[in-house]
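Deviation from plan, reported transparently: copper (II) ion complex.
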Amino acid sequence: MSSLSPPVKKLWWNEPIHKSELLWISLVFVWGLVMTFMMPYWHVVGKQNLGTETYKTTPADFQQATQAFVDKFTVRNEGPRNHPVVAPPAGGDVYMLGRLWDWWPIVQLKKGETYRFHLSSLDWQHGFSLQPANINIQVVPNYEHVFSLTPTEAGEYSVICNEYCGIGHHLMIGKILVVE
Amino acid sequence: MVNTTQMLNKVFRTCPDTGLTFHGPAENLIKANAVAAVVFLLVGGIFGLLVGLTRWQAVHLLGAEDFYMVLTAHGLNVLIFWMIFFEIAVLYFCSSVLLGCRIATPRWAWAGFVLMVVGAIMNNVVVLQGNASVMMTSYAPMEAPPLFYLSLILFAVGALIGCFVFFGTLVVAKNDRTYEGSLPLVTFGAMTAAIIAVFTIVSGAIILIPTFLWSVGIVGEIDALAYRLIWWAFGHSSQQINVAAHVSVWYAIAAILFGARPLSEKVSRTAFLMYILFLQIASAHHLLVDPGVSSNFKMFNTSYAMYLAVMASMVHGLTVPGSIEAAQRAKGHRAGLFTWLRKAPWGNPTFSGMFISLVGFGFLGGITGVVMGAEQINLLIHNTLYVPGHFHATVVVGSTLAFMALTYWLVPVLFRREIIFKGLARWQPYLFGLGMSGVSLFLMGAGTLGVPRRHWDIGFAGTGGITHEFPAAAYTMLALNGMSVIVAVIGGAAFCVIIVGSLLFGRKLGDQKMDVPWIAAPVTEEEYNANGGSAFAIPGTVVLAMIFFISFALYYFINWKYLAETWGIS
Amino acid sequence: MSEQDPGESGPVPMMQKLLDNPFLLLFIGVASPALLYLVWGIMEIVTIPVK
Ligand code: HEM
Ligand SMILES: [Cu+2]
Ligand SMILES: [Cu+2]
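Because the crystal trials were delayed, the predicted structure below was used instead.
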């Protein structure tokens, strides 16, 4: 009788379990508890916990809010797409929108300050991939996702789209600048 | 009465090599589904080659439009069509053949098969026409032509019929009393796969039918977030069908080659129960960086409720090689820790394929999957190439190679033809396993460096000057991936050539027994007991398991450390 | 086998009865993820506030 046939013993539930199997089961059970513990633990002590604050919005509303943000804090225009570079006050709100095939506007942040990001899409789904910091967030139309970001190092960062969004997907790139 | 019995007997045959009983209609259905599976693997594999060579930036084979089209076709052909056709074949085998009974409602089963074939062909036609390059996920509100969704719905309905034929066959076997006691473990595992498949397909229907109606203009809007939630109940659970199915195949191969029995029926079946209860909720690990779903939802579901389903996989990971070790020791390979493993038939592709599948699935696929499924760690790799790297280890090195291994054994049994090119077959699992492990590792390496998945040009040549400079190592990873792709494709093509060639040109076996024994006699109680008192001592496997555990724990904590180095986010 | 062998006689334990019942398992396997994942998830999405 192998695994291809019915169990040898009719009441197989009553069969004893060998100790090496028991040892392994206990070990992986405890390991499961450790991994279960790690996530809430990181919520308490870790600095990387993506907030889940979210509002229903519309592309028009979100575009308007982003436009208002741009109008208020633009410091200059720059780059091949002549995008506004927007420098909000430390600790302030930041709006960034994804659309086919662009991130808008360019944002300039101060190292070590914490900003409240508002992120949404005007059309399809996009992927906010901040490089080389390697932070990746899904961007979904009709939902405004609000979370805080704290840059830890100065430099020029790219926002790459890493959710496939049609034929121009690989053209979708934006910038976040971090200054001292 | 006598008449019907005679008629029934006519449609049964007993395989001279394995002693298994085949019900004619079941046998034909198994053959048809398995052949369709291999055809779609071949098609999808060719697309995989084109994708891999395009992502090798120095080669950059296809243009952007073709690349996205071919990538869509690759995902659908291999992940959906190859896997599910083969799994339907496995379901029919594990019910009708292992239980030695007739298959329930063969006409319905054929109807299901036809729907699946029509759906799969239609899908390929729609995708290759070029305006359905939406990836297999087809995230709304990106829109595909209605026939794209319809083809998937047809395929899914066909597969659902297959699942119910499987459950019907369990009932037939029970009523006809073709077995005594509980289901064989392998059948129980197949049943686990079928249960998960039902949930999968129902979820697919819940999301694809409204999306289809939306594409023809009957429904006004599809909520993008709800689409993601429900689509992943379908898309992720279907991966869990693969896991449950390939674990059953592992147990089956251990029984076929070694006559092994489970170390403990209770433990192995309880592990499958954990799959039934908790595997599917991990669909949430696709939503870990999504807006709108709470951290509680994310943590509970991504952890399979306290990692109980992960525990189940780790238990199978111990008990499958453990049952082989116990059987080998019972048959006399008792010296040292690993004689049992050294004496295994490494030249038999059924064994080598299965064992590489087991190790690759565990070390490469399993560890990385659990690590990136931690809510916060997911921030680092979501939608990077790390993700395809991970699942080429699970669904290709794991499931696909396990299915290939079983196929080598099935061809002579089902088709009564000998395998051709035995020398090549010896090497095929190593080529494919090695190549695919390379694909998996190098994609993961690129992903760790931030390289996005499904992306035609990480050099950003067309953006008019806005670029991002990935480290040189990222380009190296993509080049190494391209080379591994070539090795893997040679291995995959070798499989298709051997199998199709054997079906067409293999020596006909008829009622003759083969020269080599094709199924091992089950290890007897006496043999087990002869193994120095403790019937199921498995020291070698325990050592391997500990190595696995230590790698897992190290890699897990390294990633938390890596996470701690990036920007603050809350 | 002797009468006392626990593998051969006596009442079938609860858990074994459960594991021997494909349709009960099918029900649990569909209902549990439907509740824990689909229903819970949809509830969260429909209760997202409008700004
Ligand atoms: C010789 C065979 C194969 C090669 C060379 C190959 C290679 C690749 C490559 C390079 C990617 C692209 C990653 C990206 O740019 O995002 C990919 C994607 C993928 N592969 Fe494979 N693969 C092969 C076989 C398979 C098999 C057998 C399966 C499933 C059973 C599979 C499932 C997938 C899926 C689901 C995707 C993702 C498609 C998407 O993003 O929508 N592959 N493959
Ligand atoms: Cu995009
Ligand atoms: Cu994109």
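The mean pLDDT of chain C is 87. We consider this an acceptable substitute for the interim report.
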